[in-house]
Structure formats: structure tokens, C-alpha cells
Design a protein that fits this description.
The chain is of the alpha/beta class and 328 residues long. It folds into 2 domains: 4-205, DHBP synthase (Alpha-Beta Complex); 226-326, Rossmann fold. It is 31% helix and 17% strand. The chain binds threonylcarbamoyladenylate and magnesium ion. The site of threonylcarbamoyladenylate has 29 residues, from β4 and β5.
């Protein structure tokens, strides 16, 4: 955990236009002053991320939204009161003066108030808003520990604040409230039915006309090793077949059946919350295990599992590419 001296140092770096990686309750963010175009451009270079992908603006409090959004619909206000600070990002129409580097040139802006104590202290000391995508290279597995950030981004960051392992472990839920129809852009830390309960209106699922979000590309969150997502019923047979000619690692919600040997078998959490908490750390670990193929048991049905299922599908689609520029 960090002391107040390192938080102060981080705030000074942000004021000077530098980059600070910091923990949030979801994943680590790679932060810059959200009003400083040059600083935000540095984020894109560090991540190797295309410039037209917008970044989320992290705020100290819900009261700050009015500086970033032209209007706050009643339904947004209800979500803010109920879920902030917490793993929810709202897409709203941007206020005048919000820079294109943050919005990716769109007329909307993504905002959220994180709950992690270090993120909150940093926002408070800095006294402004922090633009921050997840602290990983574009298309790669997100970072849920300070060590992941250093491995991925190392020298490109001026300071990494260490807050231990992130609690939620998976990114925030993103809801687009910039049009008359609330729309889910990315499942995440809060299940969509919990949002609907508070909003008292249905939330549409993303479609092709939705604004572009890198976390919604078919290939994302990808390990370097090739990854297959297999339905529960076919898992054992698939592992047996592949293990005959490749070094196989398995990520499943149950222990290996008797007779399966020579396979690195990782048992993940049975509940969606526990699974999500350790998902990226497990993918990082299995990716570095020296295996040639990663076989993952598909998660069960149910909205609780939406975010995990979404990340696993995108990870499988993008897997097996050693160069992020080759991602489909
Ligand atoms: O939990 C999180 O949301 C983490 C932590 C660090 O806050 N951040 C995160 O950022 O996941 P990033 O950049 O990896 O993913 C944010 C997603 C991107 O897919 C981006 O395109 C989308 O949010 N986004 C941001 N602003 C948007 C906007 N105005 N319209 C549509 N999508 C937007
Ligand atoms: Mg990301």
C-alpha cells in the first residue's frame, strides 16, 4: 500500500503532464490529466492504442459530472446516486471544452467515480479529473496488480502506485445514456439487471451502431498463447485430444477428472464474483506457464456471468498473436 508522500508525488506528476498508473477497484488504470491534450496523447503512445478510441474520465465525485457532460438525464442521476463510487461508467453528451483526445473525437464522454481508496486519494490530491484506460498494451490482458503494469508498460509510465490486487478484477460496466435509449456497451463489475432495477427502464444490448469502444472489439484482453473456449460437456474430451500433441493448460470451474495427467489444470472460482476477481491474474499466469494451448471451460448461463463470458470470448478471439498489431 502507498503512503501519502507517494500519492503527493503522483499528483505532482499528473500536474506536470506525466503518466501515473494507479489501482482502481476494477483494474489498474494508466492515468493522465484529462484537461491536458499532450498528456493524454502520451497514454495512447504508451499503450500503442489507436487515437480514435475514447478514454474514461475518472472523477472525485458525482458532483463533478456537470463539468464534463452537457446534461445529466434523470436516469443517470439515479445510477450515480446508487452505484458511485463503483464499477460503473456512464456515457453522456460531452460538455463544451472536453478535449478530442479524451472523447476520440466523438460528441460523448465516458465518466466514472472509482471506489478504490488510492484512486480516491489521488483524485483528491490532484484536484482534477484523470483520463485513464486500463494499464495494459492495446488488445492485451488487463492489469490487476502493480507487477502486471510494470511487465506490460514498464518504462512508459512515470510512477506506478501499488494498491495490491484489484477487488472486482474486471472492468467497469459501461452504459450509454447519451441518446434516448439506454444501451449496454460493455458488461462489467455491475450486472445489467442490477442497473435496470435502479433505472426502472430496460437497457438495450450493444449493436453495430453503438459508439466505438476498444473493449468491445471482437479481439481483446488476449493472451499470447492460443486459447479455446469449450462448453462444459466437451471439456474433458477436448483436453485429452489436445494433450496428445501439445502442452496444454486448462482453466475450469472443477478439478481435473481422474486419469488426466501432464496437464496444468487451474481451478477457477465457482461464483462469478470470485472468478472475475482472479481472471486476469490467472490468464497472465497461464500465458507465462510455457503451455502451447489454453483450454478454458465456458462459463455458465446467467447475467452474473456476462462480463466473464464477454472477456473470455474476446480473449479467445485475439489469442495466439504475439504482436498486438496483428490482432484481427
Ligand atoms: O474499469 C474500468 O473501466 C477501467 C478502470 C481503469 O477505470 N478502465 C477501462 O478503460 O477499462 P479502457 O479504456 O480500457 O476501456 C474503456 C472503454 C473503451 O472501450 C472505450 O472505447 C470506452 O470505454 N469509452 C470511453 N469513452 C467512451 C465514449 N465516449 N463512448 C463510447 N465508448 C467509450
Ligand atoms: Mg482496456
Amino acid at each position: 500500500m502507498e503512503d501519502s508522500a507517494s500519492i503527493e508525488r503522483a499528483a505532482r506528476i499528473l500536474k506536470a503532464g506525466g503518466l501515473v498508473a494507479f489501482p482502481t477497484e476494477t483494474v489498474y488504470g494508466l492515468g493522465a490529466d484529462a484537461r491536458n491534450a499532450q498528456a493524454v496523447r502520451r497514454i495512447f503512445r504508451a499503450k500503442n492504442r489507436p487515437a480514435d478510441h475514447p478514454v474514461i474520465v475518472h472523477l472525485e465525485s458525482g458532483d463533478d459530472v456537470k463539468q464534463w457532460a452537457r446534461e445529466i438525464p434523470a436516469v443517470a442521476q439515479r445510477l450515480i446516486e446508487h452505484f458511485w463510487p463503483g464499477p460503473l461508467t456512464l456515457i453522456l453528451q460531452r460538455a463544451p471544452g472536453v478535449i478530442d483526445e479524451v472523447t476520440g473525437g466523438q460528441d460523448t464522454v465516458g465518466v466514472r467515480v472509482p471506489s478504490h481508496p488510492i484512486a480516491r486519494q489521488l483524485l483528491q490530491k490532484f484536484g482534477g479529473a484523470i483520463a485513464a484506460p486500463s494499464a495494459n498494451r492495446f488488445g492485451r490482458i488487463s492489469a490487476t496488480t502493480a507487477a502486471h503494469v510494470c511487465e506490460e508498460l514498464g518504462g512508459a509510465v512515470d510512477l506506478v502506485l501499488d494498491g495490491g490486487a484489484c477487488d472486482v478484477g474486471i472492468e467497469s460496466t459501461i452504459v450509454d445514456l447519451s441518446t434516448g435509449t439506454p444501451r449496454l456497451l460493455r458488461p462489467g463489475g455491475i450486472a445489467v439487471d442490477a442497473l435496470e432495477g435502479v433505472m426502472r427502464v430496460p437497457v438495450a444490448r450493444a449493436d453495430a451502431g453503438s459508439p466505438r469502444a476498444s473493449g468491445t472489439l471482437a479481439a481483446h484482453y488476449a493472451p499470447r498463447v492460443r486459447m479455446l473456449l469449450i462448453e462444459s460437456g466437451g471439456l474433458e474430451q477436448s483436453v485429452r485430444e489436445h494433450a496428445q500433441n501439445a502442452a496444454v493448460a486448462v482453466l475450469a470451474r472443477r478439478p481435473p477428472p481422474p486419469g488426466i495427467t501432464g496437464v496444468l489444470w487451474h481451478v477457477a472460482g465457482e461464483r462469478a464474483r470470485d472468478y472475475a476477481h482472479e481472471l486476469y491474474a490467472t490468464l497472465h499466469q497461464l500465458d507465462r506457464s510455457g503451455c502451447e494451448l489454453l483450454v478454458v471451460e465456458a462459463p455458465p448461463a446467467g447475467t452474473d456471468w456476462d462480463a466473464v463470458r464477454d472477456r473470455l470470448q474476446r480473449a479467445a478471439t485475439g489469442s495466439g498473436q504475439t504482436d498486438p498489431d496483428d490482432l484481427p
